[in-house]
Amino acid sequence: MGETLETPGRIEPCCLEVVSEEISGLVAMLAARSAKLGARLRPKTAAHLADLVRIVNCYYSNLIEGHDTNPRDIERALGGELAEEAGRRALQVEAAAHVQVQRAVDGMAAAGRLPEPASVDFVRWLHREFYRDVPPDMLHVGNGERPFEMEPGAFRTRPEHDVVVGRHVPPSSERVDDFMRHFESRYRFASMGPDTRIMAMAAAHHRLAYIHPFPDGNGRVARLMSHAMAHAAGVGACGLWPISRGLALGLSSHGEYGRMMDYADTPRQGALDGRGNLSLRALTEFSAWFLRVCVNQVTFMDALVDPDRLRERLRAYVERDERLRPEAGLILNEVLSTGEMVRGDTARVTGLTEQAAGDLLGTLTDDGILASDTTMGPVSFRFTVHVAEILLPGLLPQA
To answer: What are the Fido domain coordinates in residue numbering (predicted)?
Structure first.
């Protein structure tokens, strides 16, 4: 590889030199719709829905990597219930690690402690946290002449770490650190305005994958970084939309993500195609596609959690379960309106006797749609995979 292409400038352009009307519109749309989504639900309800969104994000991120992990298995793994079969158990451990990293990112964002999402330290932290507790065989990389054990959080540094990804030859391992320092400087949010941050999400996603800083796990890290960037750019909507679902499904076909990432690898095509090593036209089209995917997912989730539509599905939820009295709908609507309900209010809300109201609430908690943080604490919604299949149609794959 030529010396010129082994300089960090190889990933330029990192940002769009001219912002098209289409991209300006997508940025404005994403900002507006994510703000609307973030305000749709009561904080307690939103927090528990975010728990489910992490499972959705994990499922689709793994699917992109060719690992079809059943959402129920992910949920079981988070509860400590692992399969006996080794391969299935390994996928559960991998999935649980993804969810836990995303939960940590969401927690930092909610507390206002999220670091620069494109910083070297944060990118390495994402990788280290993801791989920290996985089985040793998941750290084994390569089946050819030079297999090695990957160190969680460590960039490629040795010749045996050099890789080829499809048609793309990433920077050699000895130069990864220089490339990542350049990456950090070009995508530092502290120096960007709100709109620029949103646009940078797309470009940074591709350029991190282009550098391929780790021996393995780069796709997952890039998608987790993009999730963090959405928070830092002000479009995270309390963690209520799953970016990996959009990337996996695409806008018209499941293969779009790979094709668009490959297209963004295109070298500069002449004097009218920007001033960097890579094609500005390809980066612009990739950015527009990526932002359309984001808008698509935010719009989908906003329609899914529209309170009026949720109430209709809650009514259907009650009607389909012969164990539930019609008054169960009154309880569920009260929790939807207030975020949580004191147990002692059940009789008042339903008009039933204390005993009948308590029994009805017990059936709802046994079913898993309502729960409390303490034995006798207020109840709030819990969006288990079972509940989601009824209340949030289309969010998860068909069972």
So the answer is: 118-292
